[in-house]
Write a structure and sequence with these properties.
single chain, 13 helices, about 0% strand
Length: about 240
């Protein structure tokens, strides 16, 4: 399928209720309002396609950009590609999910995450924290820089409540990821979760809530799922 063929198909799948929901969550025009579940059959049909993914992302259409992340060939993505995607992401579904997922599966995940979390741009910083969380979810502990991740837990304990809105959300998610996916950091993450307590995030008038990190980690522990990795960050 060409880019135009994909866009025409996405338009037929657009749903006004879904579009209204995404708008409440901060989605930016243009987009059709396609449910994520309706993108999965297209993903299966297109498979991984580096060039088509880049072309879809470049359209600026949010539905196409999300689909681009699903079909991106993570091993073909360059550092420049990922930086460009991070800069073009204009709301959290793209910055904290699409870009972070692909970055974490690429050859540059940790390198870029370290750069991105230092950014003064809220969206870029959230992409960095989300990338660190995704890395923990898919990489074996021996592949992770545990010393660095421990230092970032200490940083979050000190900085989370004075950080920008969505950065607070993704920092909180980082604490949860460290506690749930890396058994050697579970106790440390719970300690930090106790320190930060409930994290206040403006969710834009939606019904979404910020999970309490300590409670979340404990539930995963009780289910015996601590350290259980995912096959892929993308969903």
């Amino acid at each position: 399928m060409t880019v135009q063929e994909v866009l025409l198909h996405l338009e037929t799948l657009g749903d006004q209720q879904t579009k209204r929901t995404w708008l409440k969550h901060g989605a930016q025009e243009p987009f059709f309002g396609v449910k994520v579940g309706d993108l999965k059959p297209i993903q299966k049909r297109l498979k991984k396609n580096y060039n088509l993914a880049k072309e879809l992302y470049a359209t600026g259409n949010s539905d196409a950009m999300y689909l681009a992340g699903l079909i991106a060939d993570e091993k073909a993505m360059t550092k420049e590609d990922l930086q460009d995607w991070a800069e073009q992401a204009n709301w959290y579904m793209l910055s904290e999910y699409t870009v972070a997922w692909v970055a974490s599966e690429s050859n540059y995940g940790l390198e870029l995450a370290k750069e991105w979390i230092q950014s003064d741009d809220e969206r870029i910083a959230t992409t960095g924290w989300a990338t660190l969380s995704s890395l923990a979810s898919i990489k074996g502990d021996s592949e992770l820089d545990l010393e660095y991740l421990t230092s970032q837990l200490d940083h979050v304990a000190q900085a989370i409540h004075s950080s920008p809105n969505r950065v607070r959300y993704t920092m909180n998610g980082f604490v949860i990821a460290m506690g749930c996916f890396i058994p050697t950091l579970t106790a440390k993450a719970k300690e930090v979760a106790k320190t930060i307590g409930k994290v206040q995030v403006d969710m834009g008038g939606t019904a979404c809530k910020t999970p309490e990190a300590y409670t979340y980690i404990e539930k995963v522990e009780q289910m015996g799922r601590t350290g259980k990795k995912k096959k892929t960050a993308r969903c």
